[in-house]
Amino acid sequence: MALPLWAWAGLAAALAQTGRNAAQSGLTARLGTLGATNVRFLFGLPFAALFLWLALMWSGEPLPALTLRTIGFTAMGSLAQIAATALMLQVMRTQGFGITTAWLKVEPVLVALVGWAMLGDPLTAPMLGAIGVAVVGVLILTLKPGAGRAMLTGLGPATMGLLAGLAFGMAAIGFRGGITALPEGGFLVRSLTTLVLSLAIQTGVLGLWLALRDRPALAGSLREWLPSLAAGFLGALASAFWFIAFSLTSAANVRTLALAEVVFALAVARFAFRQRVTPRQMAGIGVLLLGVALLMRVSP
Asked: What pTM value is reported for the model?
């Protein structure tokens, strides 16, 4: 079965995002969480603008005119992504990576429902079933035996984790809504135009916050410019492919395929850092890939 273009774009995005996370991990220790997050936007914006300029030169299309609907949807997605990241990091401080990831990865189900309600994205029972299988695969991957009881303790962390997943879902809906609201241009130019707009909003909002609340982190982001360039480039490349996928299919399809990033991260851990992959993780990978394959087959 030949993969559609949106699937190739999503897989390329997941690979680039895995590389960005690896490049950004060292910056977190030196700059703090918000400082390292700022690098993603601040140093990603120039590369995104370069990608857009190249697309305009290659296609010969004019820059699409921004509409209020595009600006509104993109601003919603940009702010939701910042809020989701903050909620996720807060939950990870108390609950650990595995349980937090499990809460977050119900996101594709939420995205499917919200995308159907807000954007009219297609949603069928077989699609929901395939998304559910993929989510179960991630739960097997991330949850250790006996962790289910820990997930149920403490309504506060559970609520915050689910809210983070919902916020990530709203970000995906906002970005897809911003792309589809542009009145002109091919999918590539519309995707990259929305990407530049979103990164400009995020750079401005987070930069203002750091200037007012954490100037050392802001100064550190600028001081660590050389390693930040790599993280910024990979982040912009990943986002460009995510936005291209959003322009071609529903946000639910894209966010379900994004679960493949967990597999790429395990591969990096296994081959780059010599970390062992357990039989439980292998089983989770199998179920996850089955869900993604089913989604490829049943998506309109």
From this structure: 0.79
Task: Please report the pLDDT score of residue 198 as a whole number.
Answer: 97
One-letter amino acid at 11 equals L
Q: Which of 36-45, 96-105, 186-195 reaches the highest mean pLDDT? A: 186-195
Residue 20 is predicted with a pLDDT of 75
Residue 295: DSSP 8-state: H
**Dihedral class, residue 146 (left if φ above 0, else alpha if ψ from -120 to 50, else beta):** left
With CA atoms as reference, report the closest residue to 70 among 168, 184, 167, 166.
Answer: 184
| 158 neighbors 151 (Cβ within 8 angstroms) | yes
Count Cβ atoms below 10 Å from residue 226 Cβ, excluding itself.
7
CA dihedral (179, 37, 267, 90) positive or negative: negative
Among 30-34, 46-50, 92-96, 137-141, whose mean pLDDT is lowest? 92-96
